[in-house]
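User: Structure tokens for both sequences below?

Assistant:
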Amino acid sequence: MDDATRRHLANLPIGQALRERAALTPDAVFVREQQFGIYAEHTWSEYLADVEAFACGLVRLGVRPGETVAIMSDPSYLWMVADSAVISIGAISFGIYTTCSTEEVAHQVSTAGAVAFVSENQEYVDKLLTVDAQCPSVRHILVDDTRALFGYDDTRIVPAGQLFTPERPYTLEESDALADLVAATRADDVALLVFTSGTTGQSKAAMITHRNFMVGGAYQLCRVFPDMADAQERAVICHLSLAHAFERIVCLYSPILTSMVVHIGEEVEQLTATMLQTQPYYFHAVPRIWQKLASQAITSIDRSSPVKRLAYRQAMSVARRYRALHWEGSRVPWLLRAQYAVARALVFIPLLRKFGLSRTAYGLTAGTHTPEEVQRTWQCWGLNLINGLGMTEVGFVAFQRQRCPRAGAVGQQVPDLQVRVAADGELEYRGAGVFRGYLNQPERTQETFTADGWFCSGDVGTVGTDGEIVLRDRKKDIMITAGGKNITPSLIENTIKGSPYVSECVLFADGHKYPTALIELDTDAVQEWAENRNLAFTGFTSLTELPEVKQLIGAEVDRLNQQLARVEQVKKFRILPKELDPEEGDTTPTRKIRRAHFERMFQHLVDEMYADERKELQQLQ
């Protein structure tokens, strides 16, 4: 597929682009989904046939252009078919994270006015029915796995499979009516809703057009990674929630323009097994997954034989010197190059092979800021891990382009996206990927744009002469200490999260004399560390209370504090006594922290860390 064809497809409505792609390569494989241990293949022609059947079924049920349909499921072939079918008939699709609480399900379904709810199984049907009174718009509930629904008598519940093979076959007139709906859709029509994280309040529904994600997302990806559109198959894994804008662009819409073949494992929790089976050419994940995988590798090495531990330490010593010269742009001496080649062959390639990443050309991390220590570690192992920046409201913004680039920057801005820096340092964007606005919130939409039409990102950053973007912080998250010092919480939090034993770090400093932090343990890493030292504990809470664990985290905080300016260093910390659970409202569905909510939830721990300040104030009263 040449660039002219890709550009043409990108500027079509998704339903029309899908039809043209299927006509171009009908027998090429689009997706492989694992079922009972075996990957079932679906070609482009098969996928289109399933999409059109599902779309005819939606129309027969009475779903009309402009109406909305919710999808709640882990990544699956049905998710992909349902999304494309909804969009093809001019209706609007939106995904709900499976980790959403029932209150959030009610908020999203009622806000969108969903007329149909596509569910993976009984668990998510129950979430909807629990708040059914708040969702009067839902007329149909389509369920993939109906095995546990034998006791339900709700007439709205229909097996999703009936839309593929209805008792009364679709007529020629229905097929013609579907073709008319596909043809009537325009590229600038709203195609889908993506609900924002809701870190500062209730989530908002961003209205995304076909062009926003096809041109501002999929086509940009092709221009940044042109080899993804080569004739050779490029394996990618769909493992993040398809309610996430990033995953939808990569796994649902980018394949229309590329040679990507999407692989869906049997269980999301078995990601490493899927990686081993798939050997992805391109593997994308949020920073937390990259950190988790690295932590698993390091703790595995920690419990290995003395010879293997020594080999790893020596290999890393060579790798750090090699990469330091590479990041500085200096010439690497031939002897060091040879030493690094030996280290890769004997230590790092076997390590990457255990994750199925030894053949991966691109490792991409995006979604939030990546701890620099995590990115540097993977690059030392020889994986080309690069940062990317995107926003629900903008599509793709920037990618690092060089091989194994310096950690920290999010990369060069993508082609055709205009970026400028406001007087207060906020990054502003304009381009084809910028969304239509927030559903039913004209005032919030107006606040998001400048008078001359630029989108206000809320990110504070800089843009270099080469288009390289460096993020400093979220505009509203900058903290000012009692001494008047401005500090960037995300910088400090990501530095502390560079420890393999830390899963989450939340900073407090606004109005206080010094920064403190609440820390969530990486359960697997710390548990393995404790077991290797024969420490006794009965569960997560007792693990957090072990003096040895507190000393371990204290040593990690002290080590990582050395990377920070004195005013930024964490002076005190507390370990959270529980694991954070999105379904309990501890975080957003994507595990982002609602800072105000978090402080209220653990107020007693914050008070402990600032007891000396309170004592001083009491003396003045």
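Moving on to the next sequence.
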Amino acid sequence: MHALLALAAATLLATPQFDRARDCAPSPTVGWQNALYVDRGEGLFRQESFLSVTEWGDAAEGDPTASQLIADCFGDPAPHSRLVVLHHLAPLPDSPPRTRPVLLVPGAGDNAIRSYTFMALTLRLAGFEVYALTFAHRHGDNFLQAEQVANAVGVIAARHPGVLVDVVAHSKGGMPARIYASNHAGADWSAASPAYHNGGTRYRGDIGRLLFFGAPLGGLDTSFRWPSANFFPVYGTPLDSPGSWTAFYPGGNRFLGQDLSPYSLYGGADSSFPGQAQMLAPWDDVYELPGGNPLLGVYAAVQQDWFTTYYGGFGFVSDSDGLGDAIEESGHVIDALQGIGVDPAIEVYVVAGGNPILSSAGFGGLAFASWFADGDAAARRNFWQDGVEAVLDLYFPWWPAFEDELPRLLAGTAFLGEISGPSDGVLFVDSALGTDGLTRRGAVIAESRLFQRLNHVELLAAGNLFAEFHRNPDNGFFDPDLAAKYADPENQVLEWLVATLAQPVPEDEPEPEPEPEPEPEPEPEPQPEPEPQPEPEPQPEPEPQPEPEPEPEPTPRGDTPDVGPPVDAGAPPPGQADAAPDAPDGDGSSAPVGCRAAPPAGGSSLWGLMALCVAGVCRRRRPGQRSP
């Protein structure tokens, strides 16, 4: 009851400067209702830096990624970070009633409409009221986004008074959700975000469950570990993701340098990827860098300037300030989070994928086709497949679970992501399941779950709906193998999510009625004191009488036995008298005086000791897993 009162008070006091600016066009496919909100508070939010590749808007017909719909809702392809889009999807009328609403927080480079389609529809069919956020900047500052998470939770809690909000956060979205859930009075964010340290909303106790799906709980170093991605902006096709080089020199010519700093992770809050830099953490002491691991073969050979990229310096064709400088400029956010911990009242779940094969949507297909086009194609294909299997043997002992997906690698419709350690293709499993920092203040990890056949993106969609989507031959995504994969109960992360969120919560259970107090027994009525009786009159002493003369003794009449005192009717019959003190019974035991000795008990009636074993699901610390 006290918790509910505190929650109601927090809802009334929640971010009064957070206003609904306008309603936006609904999503035509899923049915999201979309609204633009603005935080009018001063001193925290700022206009973040955008590159053309990170702005909102999509010229493709039909807006398949919903990017244009988002741009129209914001009213600007590079919106101010005080703006945020809150999406809402009501449950179906005939679905089972649920107590808690659910908020979905998307990862980097994405919006909630595209990333959460299948998860949101699955939750809606199960009866949940679903909300989701799309931040102004796809790679924005996690502290600004943490404030928007607090704003959204406050709005949702006001619509659903008296209940907590369950939050599901994927990938980078786990950062702002975790920051808000950790922002107690003693949290120190001064090195990473002085503005948030001074003005960020303190955690209000309004989250019930917090579920991390492929979130970088232990950080990541992908852009520095795999420097070959830096070549995309060099050749004029920059990706919607950051790099780690500050300059590129064609042919190693220092006089022909190309500035790559706008695409890099340097610059702290002023960079175009501030939220990405805040997720950085070194993993070279756990998993060897691919450029220095000859067992990775061609994957190691193409990592140009891998050493100087990671540790900083001048390479053969590049400059890099190194991972350490990027972490320093961003304020050591992962270290700060690992030392703080989320609120202990939150029920925490962590989910990871274990499949490094990522879909390329046709990317690289032409390159593969040309490579396998001549007479040596079969030999090269076998060499390639043998190499892939050797790589997987290193870090993915469970890779036969997704063996049937290897042909997609050969067809060029998929590629291997992060393979220098067990991963979901983007993030190390050890990072996604790294819970030590979450529990610093006493929070309990309710479940830690690894879906071995799912990659980083599939964690958002795998389940019955996705299986039906790939089973349909008319939608252009027909793939019976993928349909079978997502129909397998072992891979149905969305069905697991529904079962988890449907668990009873304290709000569902009525408070027990207090037992009636026993009525006090009536006090006995006072009795009148007896009247004093008159003292008896003294009697005269009797006169002495003469002693009688003794009578003569009777004459004996034979041998008459002495029968003793009269027999008690309740005594045991002859032969069953009580044993004397400490007299042994027939079985060697002793019985106290006054108790009948029990007959000796057989072995089947002896009491035994029963041990109660509590079965817990504990994740073993993986070899090389780091402690924060």
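User: Anything stand out in the second?

Assistant: Residues 377-395 form the longest helix (19 residues).
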